[in-house]
Specification:
Shape of chain B: extended
CATH superfamily of the largest domain in chain B: Nucleic acid-binding proteins
Largest interface: A-B, 45 and 47 residues
Radius of gyration of chain B: 21 Å
Order of helices and strands of chain A: HHHHHHHH
Number of domains of chain B: 2
Number of helices of chain A: 8
CATH class of the largest domain in chain B: Mainly Beta
Helix content of chain B: 25-40%
Strand content of chain B: 25-35%
Oligomer: heterodimer
Shape of chain A: globular
Largest sheet of chain A: none
CATH topology of the largest domain in chain B: OB fold (Dihydrolipoamide Acetyltransferase, E2P)
């Protein structure tokens, strides 16, 4: 609950910084403000699928249900943030690039990421045997996560319409690409997304635990 | 059983879309655009084929006819440059000296006939400098009307 409230405060502060306090971009003007959502969204999605990777690996190693609950939760929220990223990217792309979508390596690999994890969610609800569902999910979750380094490197390895990273890169400091006045707004929004993410994750894990509890009660009777 | 069937159909659709994207999409994405030098080298084999050409819009090369919405310009990679003809509305960020990717076909006369122009932009963001016209390329409806 505290996490949710804190997320709300930071979202409101983030909106203020992104829409009012931060200056427009010298080249792109006002539309560049979509960056304050687009970058936090994709970084949160990356984090979420990293959590799927960790949960899946731990589950395959130790076979503990709680790791599977973590992975499943991460996949569900990751799909949400990947979808958001693609929608925001399209809205940003149309006025700047001139197109809503193009099949360059970065966009194609991101579409693949979304499809892999939509597939993951379908697989989980399709397989009725619980243990098999968790094992298949864990394998797919680990494979799916491996798409993220490809997405990240795609703008270096291949010719793309999408620009190289502004923040996640070892050769330049963040404020060399993003002016400090904009970096503040970006950081607050990233923090807001992280808080929101962990709020969602805790809720979703709680749901997973309750589902386990219900199954247990159904099998063995009340408590 | 009905639920399982629905999910199976959905799964098959997702699997098909995934394989299409991985094989077809990535094969295309690996050579997302050709540079003018590459296109010049493959002029014969690429004639009439739909493809993308990318590079910098040569400064001073842009001729616009706003009445007929036609644009003529050169795209260069620093080695070779190719003249491009476009009829339509280019994106706001399309301008001379900046990166662009165009989609279309190589014409018989050596002019690239573009059907789509896409503008590339850098990963750098900064506020407008004092004194310089603020964000000249921005998408702001009605902005052009205010221009003297």
């Amino acid at each position: 609950m505290i996490l949710g409230g804190l997320a709300l405060v930071f979202i409101l502060a983030g909106l203020y910084f992104a829409l009012i306090q931060a200056p427009p971009d010298a080249y792109q003007g006002e539309v560049q403000r979509i960056m304050y959502l687009h970058i936090p969204s994709i970084l949160t999605a990356y984090l979420s699928f990293f959590i799927v990777f960790v949960g899946s690996s731990l589950f395959l190693w130790k076979r503990e249900k709680r790791d599977d609950i973590l992975a499943y939760a991460g996949a569900e929220i990751g799909v949400l943030f990947t979808g958001l990223t693609i929608v925001e990217g399209s809205i940003w792309g149309k006025p700047t690039w001139g197109v809503w979508w193009t099949w360059d390596a970065r966009l194609t690999l991101t579409a693949i990421l979304l499809l892999i994890f939509v597939g993951y969610l379908m697989l989980r609800s399709l397989i009725e045997d619980e243990n098999r569902s968790a094992v298949c999910g864990a394998v797919l979750g680990i494979i799916g996560f491996l798409d993220i380094p490809l997405i990240h490197m795609s703008v270096y390895w291949w010719r793309t319409l999408h620009q190289p990273p502004s923040i996640l890169r070892p050769d330049k400091l963040p404020w060399e690409n993003v002016h400090p006045s904009m970096l503040i707004a970006l950081s607050i929004n990233f923090l807001a997304f992280l808080l929101l993410y962990f709020y969602f994750l805790s809720l979703r894990i709680h749901v997973g635990e309750m589902q386990e509890e219900v199954k247990r009660i159904k099998l063995y009777g009340v408590v | 059983m009905g639920r399982t069937k629905r999910f199976l159909i959905g799964g098959v659709i997702i699997l098909a879309a995934l394989s299409y994207l991985i094989y077809g999409g990535m094969r295309e994405a690996i050579v997302y655009f050709r540079t003018p030098a590459e296109l010049k080298a493959q002029e014969q084999s690429s004639k009439g084929k739909s493809l993308r050409l990318g590079g910098m819009v040569v400064a001073g090369s842009l001729q616009k006819d706003l009445k007929n919405l036609t644009y003529r310009f050169q795209i260069t990679d620093g080695v070779a440059s190719i003249p491009v003809y476009f009829h339509g509305v280019p994106p706001d960020l399309f301008s001379e000296g900046k990166g662009a990717v165009v989609e279309g076909k190589m014409g018989a006369d050596g002019v690239f006939l573009a059907t789509t122009i896409m503008a590339k932009h850098a990963e750098e963001y900064s506020p407008p400098q004092t004194g310089e016209p603020s964000y000249p390329h921005s998408f702001v409806p009605g902005r052009d009307e205010k221009k003297p």
